[in-house]
Amino acid sequence: MFNSRKLKLALALGFISLSGQAQTSKIDSLAIRKIYDEALANGKSYENLQYLCTQIGPRLSGSEGATKAVNWTKQLMEGMGFDRVYLQEVTVPHWVRGEKEKAKIKYKNGSQEVQICALGGSVGTGKKGIKAPVIEVKTFEELQRLGREKVQGKIVFYNRPMNQQYIDAFDAYSGAVDQRGSGALEAAKLGAVGAIVRSMNLAIDDYPHTGGMRYEENGTKIPSAAISTLGAETLSRLLKEDPDLQLEFTMNPQTLPEVPSHNVIGEIKGTEFPDEIIVVGGHLDSWDLAQGAHDDGSGCMQAIEVLRLMKALNIKPKRTIRAVMFMNEENGNRGGRKYAELATTNKEKHLAAIESDNGGFTPRGFALEATPAKIEKVKKWQDVLAPYGLAEIGPGHGGTDIGPLRSDNIALIGFKPDSQRYFVYHHAANDTFDKVNRRELELGGASMAALVYLLDKYGL
Amino acid sequence: MFNSRKLKLALALGFISLSGQAQTSKIDSLAIRKIYDEALANGKSYENLQYLCTQIGPRLSGSEGATKAVNWTKQLMEGMGFDRVYLQEVTVPHWVRGEKEKAKIKYKNGSQEVQICALGGSVGTGKKGIKAPVIEVKTFEELQRLGREKVQGKIVFYNRPMNQQYIDAFDAYSGAVDQRGSGALEAAKLGAVGAIVRSMNLAIDDYPHTGGMRYEENGTKIPSAAISTLGAETLSRLLKEDPDLQLEFTMNPQTLPEVPSHNVIGEIKGTEFPDEIIVVGGHLDSWDLAQGAHDDGSGCMQAIEVLRLMKALNIKPKRTIRAVMFMNEENGNRGGRKYAELATTNKEKHLAAIESDNGGFTPRGFALEATPAKIEKVKKWQDVLAPYGLAEIGPGHGGTDIGPLRSDNIALIGFKPDSQRYFVYHHAANDTFDKVNRRELELGGASMAALVYLLDKYGL
Q: How confident is the model at residue B218 (pLDDT cuts 50, 70, 90)?
């Protein structure tokens, strides 16, 4: 049982200001309260996400799912009566996984299957697979010290876990993802025949997590796969018992010719400054293994919800508000680059771009890539945002898709939900709709809408 | 990909102060950083919770599970080498559910089963069950307006949903739980034969959520059950189609004679002021339907973890730190009352009591029941706590178990994790270990330990 929390209500209604520097008004507090009321009572992002995840599903660039997602989100926004809904054509890579990967550790006392998945962009092993001894490393420095003599002909096993001690899970990701991105490339330089990378996962379980990797343009291309964290622990333990064990793995992904795809855009025209644009967006493509519920169906459905909330509440923005579903964040960022290219060509003026690509979890704040003056201005809005759990407003990463828009004239803003659970699901088969909580998702959309409301009203 | 976050690191290390009024030091920042490091890298509350949930399971007061939980937590703390581990005997109610409840709606075109569960403390229907027409109300005022004429002989169906528009889910709970607590009592006054209450659940699903209810001492006792939110929606819809439909339900819980049980206490003796006590606690009993993972296995395992962290980090507190596993929060609060009674008898001086009974979710802050001066003092510690997501520090509810300790000399402090998901699981069969995220749980224990560190060092 809990006592009433009058203080919080007073804060939510703006009757008490947390800061002497507040530049917002009671009108803003009430407008923002209405945005959250509508989102929590009648929000549509959860049911829209359910459709995207369960009726369309995986949507890697170039796939049938991606095409379906483009058509469906266009129809969805058209049905909402936005002022304009349109597509931007963009050419995207087309990588396909092929049949399910297999991997087996063969050690002196037996053999053990482990769960792996090809990393996005990797070449295959051929039908016969690769069988070779394994050398475990934690860092590229360690790999260099081992040198060609100890690496040649082997499979390099990158097994540096994400550092649990970071509070923000994205910091742990940043500190480990070099293994996935450049592991194959560095191993190939020393004559390795394959690279196996511990999944970017903060939990110990049996889901392998895919993700992007790259080769050097003229370098040797060796197959690279992620192994589940449980599999990584097993492989490491068995290597201690039997350093001569061999890993046998088969995967046959293919890189097909590039294909046309699309960014999907919906907009509400500004009443006073229609040429000033505020973007809210997420990326519509997902990895092929899962429904892409948190990454990034959530962000797309929240972006659409921002515009729906404005229509439902009869908020007529002064500036043009655009929901952008970017294509191909996962393996190319072609959509983000195309959007920025066309913005330049069309001499569009962007005031701010907000991206939601950190999962559909409970809101924590916003991270800004912007001039110090712009960051200070947004921080002063904290008094009307804090009652909704948006306490963390400060410098940080905006988003991959909006990154190419970077300039001193625009604020790139990353929506920050709580990060603790994200890397249990990220790029893995368990990133499914049932992992999303309705209230957390709708609160995220409302938080983005509240910030759009303030950006539109006060400029930046 | 994410940029480095040097600002946050600087904040975490205390090199930047968020407030000119900071009373903490860099030493505190570093000590707290070590607490989180230990909890995230080597925390034991998650694996302890797994044992409690999966090897012991449900542990309603008076049950075999409760006895096992008492013995196991005592052993667990003894194994951790605390200065003293002991039991406090407390007599508790012994209510048992009996065989699984059944309910069926019989309407003109057919019949439909719905999921119900007896509310804790309810009487039964008898073997033959109850079959009666249903009258739906949203409030007690509405019930009064209907009057005896329209209520007599019927089953009153309380169907006011938790209000989705509250940001803090506990506020929504406070606003709806009167139906569960007093629904049967008020219905009986007007001659109703049963009371069916919409589950206290913010999601629409098919789990009925049990919980405490009460009768008037000399009032008529009618059977009272919770219906799943999905079942409530169905019943309400069918009532509109056929107001004469009947609900048939059977449940046969029993109230058995009271039995002895125990609070379980572990303590680390203070080096300077051993007679000043700081309590960290949760309640060891759970409802009988589930494992009680979030409610409140989490809080108990976090309380033990606070002491384990101090031992592991060789923190020697000036004051005595006690982990208390209270018995019988769910249907009597006998453990909480017994603890306070013995504290008075033994003339113990309690500085503060922190309770974790809001689930094992990601930390948000602390709610304080204390004098304004004490609240202000704790708020000034925000600069060393904010880097860990503990932004919400202010007045609020402490906890049911620690409530009986209330006085001006003590601060009652409720640990506040994020509230959004709690009421999907609260008192229902899906409150299981798999719903707990390891990092979120361990962060909670670390947050409580950080506050204990500051309370111990600076007093209050």
A: very high
